[in-house]
Amino acid sequence: MGWVYAFSETEGLGKELLGGKGFALAEMTRLGFPVPPGFTLTTEACRAYLERGAFPEGLWDEVRAQVERLEAATGKRFGGGGEGLPLLVSVRSGAPVSMPGMMDTILNLGLTPDGVQALAEATGQPRFAWDSYRRLVQMYGEVVLGIEAEGFERLLDRAKVLAGAERDVDLSASDLERLVGEYRRLIEAAGRRFPDDPWQQLEGAVRAVFESWNNPRARTYRRLYEIPDDVGTAVNVQAMVFGNLGDDSGTGVGFSRNPATGEKGLYGEYLKNAQGEDVVAGVRTPQPLERLRESDPGLYDEIADVAARLEAHFRDMQDFEFTVERGRLYLLQTRAGKRTPEAAVRIAVEMAEEGAIAREEALLRVDANTLPSLLRARIDPERAPEAAAEGLPASPGAAVGHAVLDAETAESWAGRGLPVILVRPETTPEDISGMYIARGILTARGGMTSHAAVVARGMGVPAVVGVAALSLNLEERSFRLGERSFKEGDVISLDGTTGKVFAGEVALSEGGSGEYLHRLLEWAEPHRRLGVRANADTPADARRARELGAEGIGLVRTEHMFFDPERIPWVRALILAETEKEEREALERLFAFQRADFMGLLEAMDGLPVTVRLLDPPLHEFLPPLVELERKEAAGELAPGEAKVLAQVRQLHEVNPMLGFRGVRLLLVRPEILRMQVAALLSATRALREQGRDPRPELMIPLVSTPEEVEQALAVVREAFAEFDLELPVGTMIETPRAALVAGSIAPLVDFFSFGTNDLTQLTIGISRDDAGHFLPRYLDARTFAHDPTERLDEAAVGRLLEIAVREGRAARPDLKLGICGEHGGEARSVHFAHRVGLDYVSASPFRVLTARLAAAQAALAAS
Amino acid sequence: MGWVYAFSETEGLGKELLGGKGFALAEMTRLGFPVPPGFTLTTEACRAYLERGAFPEGLWDEVRAQVERLEAATGKRFGGGGEGLPLLVSVRSGAPVSMPGMMDTILNLGLTPDGVQALAEATGQPRFAWDSYRRLVQMYGEVVLGIEAEGFERLLDRAKVLAGAERDVDLSASDLERLVGEYRRLIEAAGRRFPDDPWQQLEGAVRAVFESWNNPRARTYRRLYEIPDDVGTAVNVQAMVFGNLGDDSGTGVGFSRNPATGEKGLYGEYLKNAQGEDVVAGVRTPQPLERLRESDPGLYDEIADVAARLEAHFRDMQDFEFTVERGRLYLLQTRAGKRTPEAAVRIAVEMAEEGAIAREEALLRVDANTLPSLLRARIDPERAPEAAAEGLPASPGAAVGHAVLDAETAESWAGRGLPVILVRPETTPEDISGMYIARGILTARGGMTSHAAVVARGMGVPAVVGVAALSLNLEERSFRLGERSFKEGDVISLDGTTGKVFAGEVALSEGGSGEYLHRLLEWAEPHRRLGVRANADTPADARRARELGAEGIGLVRTEHMFFDPERIPWVRALILAETEKEEREALERLFAFQRADFMGLLEAMDGLPVTVRLLDPPLHEFLPPLVELERKEAAGELAPGEAKVLAQVRQLHEVNPMLGFRGVRLLLVRPEILRMQVAALLSATRALREQGRDPRPELMIPLVSTPEEVEQALAVVREAFAEFDLELPVGTMIETPRAALVAGSIAPLVDFFSFGTNDLTQLTIGISRDDAGHFLPRYLDARTFAHDPTERLDEAAVGRLLEIAVREGRAARPDLKLGICGEHGGEARSVHFAHRVGLDYVSASPFRVLTARLAAAQAALAAS
């Protein structure tokens, strides 16, 4: 096997070797689509290069042979220098998994001073020839020679000022020639040199693409999208065609279905007299393809036909790049199109209904983790105020937040818990981490396929792009939307579904799930084996969860009821009680509250299990913070009753509350609280039964680490059972590593285990979600952690503990029921894990029930 | 098999069934020692009773038959009622493991109103007869009927006042008869009845002994001494002999060697005209046995002969109780004597040298956990001030602390970190938990074998007992030592080796190890396979550890150097640095400090490994506490420079610092600190090598949980190695559960693992040593935790993680070195575990090196 293959000779080679782009070019070539000829350096060549730091033996000979074949096929000479058009090529990366915007591209490669002349003569367009050269020198300078883009932009801007030109296209050939000279001096001032030899250009470009695999932006992207680091990228070298030869030329991007809504039919954008980079970079705003229907119906039909054929062949919605050179259509790339979660659902469902794919495949095509975003808030058009500005609806959903003007500020403010909206002239890959953390994204430039739009859709972050009325002043940290001025930090709202931007906070309404989602989840039902429950603390949450398909409540956090403003005085009274009478009164009040809460929850979930976790947090969480009281005391502002509170807060203070006096520890030391909670649940259950309803409560003991804790808590629970003559299933959280490791001796005592993977993760790794901000972002950047373990279950360690507990728990008690009630219960890959290790159910926050339902079906399909 | 056996018919039955006391009585009976006849109800009978809540079938028939045999053997009738002496019995518990003072005893059982008359007539001592009855009614009332002792004591005191009697023995027969009547009325007032039927008495007493197995004191004792709960106790019923028939009678306790020093030869105490309870309870202070040498040389020789024969038979130092009834010696009990750690060592060594036991057995006889107490502080007699009072040197070692007058106060003050000395009139089993936590114990009454003395020696707590000059006023919370008055909370000092008590704080000097210990540890050396290192942070500690036999340092906590007052300003400067220059200056200063520290440590341990742990704690530990600064700010007292410190402290503040930004996390985010520490160690090493020394440093990375952390830290470490052209072994702490669970992928990267069992324990169980005080004492009382896992390695969970890491670490890297550097490395049972799982070494605080050395040998012997 060689290192390099022509597009036309790749029969039998796969995406892993050719990369996604190379594979698609090869397929299109073999199917007879109009693809400019070219060849692919394989990912294996990349890996060999990265390992050795040098090209592997034979690689360059193969490249030379392929370039010779290109010369033969096009009748042009690489670098020119003879008569006729010189052979120019594009050099693009193409990894096996699409990484838009992450890797580097160089166009017009092969141009030399001689070639420019030849190009100018052969096309009769010296301006075009010098512009092509200018682009090459600039891109090569940036990408291969590592010169800051800003320097080139400054020179370009100055050239425009000097020439009195408003746009790039207004620069003349001689303006451009002069500019190239300035570019060369800029490069030389940095101690580098732009090579005049086309082969040196090619070698530099290939090296740069190979090496760009490891640039920080690429690494970040891979981390966010969970792409392994050891794959490498292929390099595609393709004969150039030109969209910037005049008004009968142009470049565009097409989709076989609408990537925002999923609607079937050609969708896309076209920019006359331009090269592809102009579209992708969002520098000029293109026109919708739809306009071609009138202006150039023949071209439109041709593109629509290509779109349909590509989709039929690749069996998925396609996102393709094309160039029209003097009226002739060329395809430069095709790939499965990125899409909004909403579009993903609609496309999967409709393609299955069209018979293009099986229903099972439709299920597997939707990223289950994105489903909650379908329920994302929207701005009710009826009640919305007048928009301050309007742009392109690049990524659906509405957002409200503080405007921040760069990614770093976004990260820092969001890290302090503020909702932010990232406002930028346009986005670049450097902005990725800020985009990821923002509630919404707003840009002044760029179209529906600009970087901002593509990335925001992929991340499921609402975005409005190409807002012409938006102008930023980065020095003064301010911006304008039309007539109105804003400072960084001002609150704005945006609607990525309509493209509208609003000043201030606009009321959001909840999203609806839609018929396609409903259909998809219906198809999913028969496949899944895992049960899906919801974590819910209120009857409203419970009802919502039930609507979304939850088959029960896997976690009721009873302390959430305690925090209610009406109740917390009684919780405090209980903690501060000095006499039995005071304690009894507080307990009686809390009993009444809890009983009513349980009634509501059990009623909402009538006929379905409701797992009630007994009090979990340390008591000091119900009291004012120590620091606050100490400050008051030092300032002499302590209210009369607060001295006692301060004393109690000091007594209950903990250095590490996460590892403290809470859960079963607290319940065993203060059994009257345990007794009150169990009695309230039993009393609520009995009352509902008397009303002819079917309440199905289960009791759950938190934070155990020894079977003795369970036995001793059970002793109290059983007394209450006897008193009410009513028995309920009782289980334990498994959320300390110890509980997992001694699960075999806990299992005989209980009816079920519910894995509290939040705490289990924190204890297993020794991290605190509250504090990890000091290092976790860096850890994820540097891949010290492959994933954020608080989001996605850490299979190697936490998962291993789960497996031990499942195996040994079931061995000790074969009918033990097993579930997850940590946040991971609503994360798709973690649900797959839950399926693999044989749990009975997962429980997630209400919206994430959708994720769990689909992921459970996907897991079953993947295993079958 | 039956439930009951006569002492003379127990051939082939063991201690498990007969209990320690029953077994010893049976042995002595069969060997022809003068033992009053009797029989034993087995532990199996106890277990059966406790399970059913009733006597098992056949038990009582067997008891009746045995009592009949006793009647036949003694020629007396149980309960009397005919002519001659009535048969009286003692009823005593006797578990398989000695539990002194924990279980209940009843003497003179079988006495009835008729019997008293008969006894008075037959002995001619009506006073004795009524006193025996009085004791029975009182003991039975307390133990079986559950009447508070205080009521009886009050009546007794009143009787003495009325009779003008100073001591109990001054009461006449008729005083005592009247007193018995009052006792009966006291019992009836509580709704109970003292039975006149001897069989009912016996049944009640047996039940009470069985049930006393589960009384809280017994449970506490078992927890402290790690005795399982499911063993049960035997009951011994034995014909009474009387030490209180006059001056030719008496009772005493003998030891075959001195239990405080280990010196060979008869040792003990004797109290004329008394029953055994008078000695044990410490109510009257007995005379040294030595005095009998002159006053009754025949008796002395007889007792000495018994002591020697008992020791020869049982092959251990014996503690035996005897009674002399009208000149005739009876043995009531023998057992291996409790002894001070010092005596344990001397006795084991000398018995081996005498050929009585093998050296291996000598090694196994010493509780390795007690060895550090041999190095316990003493009061230098040369420099001591005049003693405020003097008593019996009941348990060696010196102590300084705040005097507290009851066990509860002792627990509460000690819980707040105050050193306390428990001062009591005498101690009872209710005081156990207070005694355990005290630095020293001081009592007004009692001899060398009183409860206070026995328990203090067992626990290794220094104690002075029987201080006649001590009087307490519990109401006013004060006490007097001779002429001087003290309030509770005043500081006093005591020397349990000399029996002296001092006002205020007396300077303590360090203990010396002694020749016997030295010999024992020499014998241990060839047996142990585990290496023993010390945790030490200073050259002084290192030298001390080396003297004590440490073969290296397993843990240098570099942050302990940072806390030095001279250095902490530079640590703060580093944290607060705003410019690179400030940071560089701070790092340079710290480099110089660390280099000097490392020089000292490596010099002290020349030729031996020194494992240096890189910076572990979070940075905020080096800054003033948040609460303190916030208080200052609120009070408007913030110094000019402190606003900046407060801002930084707020920024670094963590909710759960244990799970926070520390260890490798900090080192990766602030690699300049890592670099500085490694450079300091390398520089120190090079300098010492140039001096011709043999420094053997090892580097250790703390708090890792992924192999990536290790790789990334190693990248920085290797740069420093290259810079110094010097490579050191590098290892990781394994102290998060995750690190243990992925040990197989960490092992290939490092030379060694050191298990940080302190953190590993806290994370595995989800407890914080700083906060566990809220529930841990109750957890240990209720056996929710079988042991304190921060003291003794929790084998079920933490141990299991260790086993996983050992197995998978070694599989990935067979030459991986493995050790423990948590506190458990100096705890005997944990050292056994370390041996069993195949670690290479344990590392403990310097004094605990002794424990580790002996325990390692014991573990090897136990395994062979």
TrEMBL record, chains A, B:
Transmembrane segments: none annotated. Its cofactor is Mg(2+). Pfam families: PEP-utilizers, PEP-utilizers_C, PPDK_N. Residues 419-499 form the PEP-utilising enzyme mobile domain. Substrate binds at R557, R613, E735, G756, T757, N758, D759. InterPro entries: ATP_grasp_subdomain_1, PEP-util_enz_mobile_dom, PEP_util_AS, PEP_util_C, PEP_util_CS, Phosphohistidine_dom_sf, PPDK_AMP/ATP-bd, Pyruvate_phosphate_dikinase. Residues 517-859 form the PEP-utilising enzyme C-terminal domain. The keyword Transferase applies. One of its GO terms (molecular function) is metal ion binding. It comes from the Bacteria. Its EC number is 2.7.9.1. The active site is at H451 (tele-phosphohistidine intermediate), C821 (proton donor). Residues 54-288, 302-354 form the Pyruvate phosphate dikinase AMP/ATP-binding domain. Belongs to the PEP-utilizing enzyme family. This is Pyruvate, phosphate dikinase. It comes from Oceanithermus desulfurans NBRC 100063.
